[in-house]
Design a protein that fits this description.
- The chain has three domains: 120 residues, Rossmann fold (3-Layer(aba) Sandwich), CATH 3.40.50; 135 residues, D-amino Acid Aminotransferase, Chain A, domain 1; 69 residues, Dna Ligase, domain 1 (2-Layer Sandwich).
- The strands form three sheets. The chain has a five-stranded mixed beta sheet with strand order 4-3-2-1-5. The protein has a five-stranded antiparallel beta sheet with strand order 12-11-10-13-14.
- The protein is built from twelve helices and 14 strands.
- β10 and β11 form a beta hairpin.
- 40% of the residues are buried.
- Helix content is 34%, strand content 23%.
- It is globular, with a radius of gyration of 21 Å.
- With 361 residues, it is α+β, with helices and mostly antiparallel strands.
- The chain starts with a strand and ends in a 7-residue tail after the last helix.
- The longest helix has 19 residues.
């Protein structure tokens, strides 16, 4: 029997357009002989809109931007509008949701929590891993707790910055120096990130980052290669080959990722076997520290001296045609359609495992 797969995409987030590109790529790669594909679009205003079943690949991204007239649904009514709760499963029920959401209100545990309450199988990381992986400060604090090597960092909330602007800048300069990177704590896809080389650029970076979040993180800038590894699995994840990002600009920003392709991706990355094994070990430790499941992309820095530093993990890496995660697995021997099938299978496996939990005394 076909699997009824719900694609959940869009979102009230600065990464809305990234999500649309991801949904377009996934839909094109799906085998419609194996899956009944149901689009569920979240507009930039936060409306949830259910579209008609997709019977084949969608070629244009604007076709995925569904209109709300007559189709708007309430997220809290998912169990009777899309996922009926009956002793016997309704023919309209969807078997698995694939959240193709990036950033806040999608990748941060909020949607995952909703799906958990509805007891619906879904692809990817759970509430805790999603929330901790989204918040760069919490993530780095957890990594520090388990002994993973990282660059130095400091973080601030907007109110502290507004009340003690000069003191905040001085703390950054004293603790980290230049160059440094300023980032919104809860955003991905390099949105709102700036490289700072002096006080003027630092002030500009703070103003920009605080446009996207109430909390920011400032990280020490180091000279290093950027290496990434894909992870796939639940309790016993597997690692892909490593890939290297060689940006033509100062760093791997939003345009380089999603618009102009001005970045070279070297897969597999050239490195010593021992360095690759060390990265895999660190990736595994990070995966388990956050209690991840399904998929993760672990990002590292590799210095000339051979120091390996974990930068972050991404609990919902992009699936666009030029995204690193699917390319890593393609080089490892897992095609894009196979990757999607594996993720759906892992979602069902994890959901079945959770049903074993006793909820009565």
């Amino acid at each position: 029997m076909k699997v009824k797969l719900g694609l959940l995409y869009g979102g009230k987030s600065a990464e809305h357009k990234v999500s649309l590109q991801t949904a377009l790529a996934v839909n094109k790669a799906l085998d419609h002989e194996k899956y009944d594909v149901h689009p569920i679009y979240i507009s930039e205003q936060g409306e949830w809109i259910r579209g008609n079943q997709l019977t084949g690949p969608v070629e244009e991204v604007n076709k995925l931007e569904l209109k709300e007239v007559g189709n708007t649904i309430s997220p809290v009514s998912l169990n009777n509008e899309i996922f009926p709760v009956h002793a016997e499963k309704s023919s309209e029920a969807i078997d698995v949701i694939f959240p193709l959401l990036h950033g806040p209100n999608g990748e941060d545990g909020t949607v995952q929590g909703l799906l958990e309450l509805m007891n619906i199988p879904y692809v990817g990381n759970g509430v805790l891993a999603s929330a901790a992986g989204m918040d760069k400060v919490i993530m780095k604090n957890i990594f520090a707790q388990v002994g993973l090597d990282q660059v130095k960092y400091v973080s601030f909330i907007r109110s502290v910055w507004e009340m003690n602007t000069e003191a905040v800048y001085e703390q950054v300069e004293l603790t980290l120096g230049y160059p440094c990177f300023v980032k919104p704590a809860n955003l991905g896809s390099s949105v709102g990130i700036s490289k700072c080389t002096d006080r003027i650029s630092l002030e500009q970076a703070f103003n920009e980052a605080f446009m996207f979040d109430r909390k920011i993180i400032v990280e020490e800038g180091i000279s290093a290669r950027e290496i990434e590894i894909g992870m796939l699995g639940n309790d016993y994840p597997e690692c892909s080959v490593a890939g290297e990002i060689v940006p033509k600009k100062d760093f791997y920003d939003y345009k380089a990722k999603y618009e102009d392709g001005s970045t070279a991706l070297i897969i597999p990355a050239e490195m010593e076997e021992g360095q690759y094994e060390e990265m895999k070990e660190m990736a595994m430790k990070a995966f388990k520290a956050l209690d991840c499941s399904g998929l993760v992309r672990a990002d590292f820095f590799l210095t000339k001296e051979g120091r390996i530093v974990i930068n972050e993990v991404n609990t919902m890496p992009g699936f666009t045609p030029i995204s690193m995660f699917p390319l890593l697995w393609k080089e490892t021997g897992v095609s894009y359609p196979q990757l999607i099938e594996k993720l759906v299978s892992l979602a069902i496996e994890r959901h079945a495992e959770k049903q074993k939990i006793k909820h009565t005394i």
